[in-house]
Amino acid sequence: MAKEEAIPVEEGPFPVLKWDQGLFKQIVWGFQFPAEWDARYPQQGQTATDAPLGYITLFSDFFLDGNFRLPATTFMASILNYYGFHISQMSPIGTVM
Q1: In which domain, by residue range, is 41 found?
Q2: For 87, which of 35, 54, 57, 69 is 20 to 30 Å away at the CA?
Q3: Who contacts 1 (Cβ-Cβ below 8 Å, separation ≥6)?
Q4: What are phi and psi of 47, to 5 degrees?
Q5: Is the pTM of this model over 0.70?
Q6: What is the DSSP letter of 30?
Q7: Domain count, the chain
């Protein structure tokens, strides 16, 4: 895949997402995201807090460093539920199970 460069933008109160479109496409294809998930690449200048209603932000580190897979196993979901955590509260290394 050809690597597409991210366009630098001015930083605000939250860090701007650093993914490039090539990495996004590689993760969506490589981890076999179903089309019905409608995975979306963020717009220029968006932060993790800008996910559209009904969407969540996942970072490439979850997949590449944490070996995280979707859909998550029922085991992982039950452990998070038991301890009262949401996946967004986990560090990439914390997702390695």
Answers
A1: 21-95
A2: 35
A3: 22, 25, 26
A4: -115, 175
A5: no
A6: H
A7: 1
Q: Which amino acid does the sequence have at 63?
A: F
71 within a domain of the structure (yes/no): yes
Give, as one character, the DSSP assignment of residue 3. P
Whether residue 8 is preceded by a cis peptide bond, meaning omega within 30 degrees of 0, is: no
47 bridge partner residues: 16
The pLDDT value given to residue 82? 93
Closest CA to 48 of 81, 84, 12: 12
Sequence-ordered list of residues with C-beta below 8 angstroms from that of 33, at least 6 positions apart, any chain: 27, 39, 70
Residue 86 CA to residue 96 CA, distance in Å, equals 15
Q: Residue 90 phi/psi, 5° resolution?
A: -95, 145
